[in-house]
């Protein structure tokens, strides 16, 4: 293969290590422009396009991402299908991506937009794992407690892990609050083992000493 045959771009966006950085640039610009234009739901509209349109229509997503389709053709396709149903702001955003051949970055951009929006609005994602499904009332109680004790607005996501036996594990970023029954049993087991070993050692010391009784 000679130099002219070498691909100028990675075969897929996921192979491009700079994709995330580029997506973040677009995400910040998207939110800044939305704020300037007074858009009310830019995060939701982008999420809806990614989930309700692209994820449910993989052939359409592939067409928008294809390098075999020119930028003008993609813009025309968007004009016929998406733009009439989207806000003017969002339609223009998609056509900017088409013009710069960045429509394949939409999943990355959507993630970055969500993360940046949470940062700007002082929100943090909180993972709550429990042995049994939590009721809405329990989730509301946990959310209210976090809101009152932490300096941010919690976005609580719950999941079930039967191995916990009882209690909950709460993860906020890299910090974990573990009140699960599984962990408490483990702590108790370790304490009993330590106490048992100390008693054995104490007995050995007593019998190995001439003064022991």
From TrEMBL:
Q: Which family does it belong to?
A: Belongs to the ATPase delta chain family.
Q: Which InterPro entries match?
A: ATP_synth_OSCP/delta_N_sf, ATPase_OSCP/dsu
Q: Which UniProt keywords apply?
A: ATP synthesis, Cell membrane, CF(1), Hydrogen ion transport, Ion transport, Membrane, Transport
Q: Where in the cell is it found?
A: Cell membrane; Membrane
The protein's job, in short, is: F(1)F(0) ATP synthase produces ATP from ADP in the presence of a proton or sodium gradient. F-type ATPases consist of two structural domains, F(1) containing the extramembraneous catalytic core and F(0) containing the membrane proton channel, linked together by a central stalk and a peripheral stalk. During catalysis, ATP synthesis in the catalytic domain of F(1) is coupled via a rotary mechanism of the central stalk subunits to proton translocation.
A Gene Ontology cellular component where this protein is annotated is: proton-transporting ATP synthase complex
GO MF annotation: an example: proton-transporting ATP synthase activity, rotational mechanism
On whether Membrane is a keyword of this UniProt record, the answer is: yes
Q: How does it sit in the membrane?
A: Peripheral membrane protein
Q: Entry's NCBIfam families?
A: ATP_synt_delta
Quote the protein name from its UniProt record.
Answer: ATP synthase subunit delta
Query: In terms of domain of life, where is this protein from?
Result: Bacteria
């Amino acid at each position: 293969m000679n130099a002219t045959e070498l691909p100028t771009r990675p075969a897929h966006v996921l192979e491009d290590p700079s994709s995330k950085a580029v997506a973040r640039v677009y995400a910040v610009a998207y939110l800044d422009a939305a704020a300037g234009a007074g858009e009310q739901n830019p995060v939701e509209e982008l999420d809806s396009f990614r989930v309700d349109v692209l994820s449910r229509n993989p052939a359409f997503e592939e067409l928008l991402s294809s390098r075999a389709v020119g930028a003008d053709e993609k813009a025309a396709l968007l004009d016929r299908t998406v733009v009439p149903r989207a806000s003017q702001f969002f339609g223009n955003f998609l056509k900017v991506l088409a013009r710069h051949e960045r429509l394949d970055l939409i999943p990355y951009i959507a993630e970055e937009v969500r993360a940046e929006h949470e940062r700007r609005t002082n929100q943090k994602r909180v993972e709550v794992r429990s042995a049994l499904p939590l009721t809405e009332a329990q989730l509301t109680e946990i959310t209210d407690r976090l809101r009152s004790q932490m300096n941010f607005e919690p976005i609580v996501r719950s999941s079930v892990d039967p191995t916990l036996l009882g209690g909950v594990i709460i993860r906020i970023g890299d910090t974990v609050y573990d009140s699960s029954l599984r962990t408490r049993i483990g702590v108790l087991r370790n304490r009993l083992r330590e106490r048992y070993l100390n008693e054995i050692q104490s007995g050995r010391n007593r019998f190995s000493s001439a003064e022991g009784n």
